[in-house]
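This section describes the prediction task in plain terms. A model, or a person checking by hand, is given the sequence of a single protein chain and must write out its three-dimensional structure as a string of tokens. No templates, partner chains or ligands are provided. The sample shown here is typical of the held-out split.
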Amino acid sequence: MKQLIECVPNISEGRDTDKINAIAAEAETVEGVKLLDIDPGKSTNRTVITFVGEPEPVIEAAFRLIKKAAELIDMRKHSGAHPRMGATDVCPLIPVSAISMEETAEYARKLGERVGKELGIPGYFYEHAAREPKRKNLAYCRQGEYEGLDKLAKPEWKPDFGPAAFNDQVKKTGATAISARDFLVAYNINLNTTSVRRANSVAFDIREAGRIKREGNPITGKVVTGPDGEPERIPGSLKAVKGIGWYIEEYGIAQLSLNLTDINVTPVHKAFDEACERARERGIRVTGSEIVGLMPLRCLTEAADYFLKKQRRSLGIPESEKVKIAVKSLGLDDLAPFDPEKKVIEYMIRDTSTRKLADLSLTAFAEKAASESPAPGGGSVSAYCGVLAAAMGTMVANLSAHKRGWDDRWETFSEYAEKGQALSEELLKATDDDTAAFNKIMEAFGMPKDTAAEQEARKQAIAAATRHAAEVPLRIAKLAYDTFDLCRAMAEKGNPNSVTDAGVGALCARAAVKGAVMNVRVNLADFEDREFVEKTLAEADELDRAADKAEREVTEAVALALK
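The expected answer:
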């Protein structure tokens, strides 16, 4: 699995489209880096740029972007609603796959050292890249913002990289903060007010840092200080949340601008609901929200589950439906259309160069199966029969969860539906896995065999591909067999009006198991590893017999229910 990191530089330009595009385009000059998103804000005069790739290409792309921003942005002329201190204000690196936070932090430090040395731009390492505890907090590093960068010359504010002076060049470029951090969701919540003061009040109610404690009047009263002389604070209600209130002129409303720094602690839906409650207490209504930049898919699916549970509705529905529910529940389309394909990181980085069987329509799948090509063949069709089996059981579970008078049983049926949905997704993926396994065999047989070494390599490749080509349909048979439990439960306990659908699911499951077993047998017909063949065929034969028995049990339950 490739190491992947995401980079999310925030540049101090949100109005000049030509400059923004020129700076963002630098990311795409590096091979292997994919530019995912450009999200400008006019009022903040700030743009969030997102790209992803393997570590070395990503930090090269980040360096080029920081260099271009320094050339095109003059911080002496910059103003905006968002705190900032440099042309590239922040440049965080986020581990995506197969890379640790510690490794990502090393790449962040490598990038910072180069920025300071080659570009003469000073800055600080924060979050997991920080070299001292107090600099872990971005707000601390950015204290005083651009206007306070004369602090660079002070010993306690010596930058982690670059010149320790507010010289003529730094007056133009400002300073940059570079980090390695967890996935941060920049999340704005829309309010039906134009008052920044009231928006700030709600933000202070919510954010972890809360508000400064005062004697008497909470606004004008004397600040209460602790034994260390520092102001005491009244903590907010949510952990791992930073936030302020601001007015967005282009929308004509005030917003809560929140950074969710750990979505495992405070997910999007929890922040939204808490904002709704705290705003209501202050006579304000939340009208919706917006995501700045990209978000992980689980932000939406977890939000959908949260709201579905509140409605006492089944969670066993397709991912696409969950996304729609989350968008509506969070009001993500309040200010502008919300396109998940452009806002969800998993959707942005998935490979769309080849069309998968799972993406085809029923007609297209059938036509492809009927073509002269040997793949997709019986294994893929068996997997799809399994998909239909799981779908039938899931449908009955969902209908049962919503049945009038069965409200006290909705969670039980929701659990069945979730299991069915998970099986359906695994089997749908397996339609392509079986075709890929067949293609691997063809590739192995097509390897050169002129020399003894080539012949041995070809022999080993054929053996490995054949073993895999048997393992894939065996896994399909196991997954399809697991759908019998769902269909049986729905035939016996589910909505009586849909009992025959459970029966149809069992028939599809039987076809899926027996078809997959046939593919196991044919793929092992001439395989030389007899121990593997005997073990695999014994397992396949047992599944074959068990499928006959399970199908009879379900269809008998259906017949009994129809009497």
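For orientation: Residues 315 and 414 are 6 Å apart (CA to CA).
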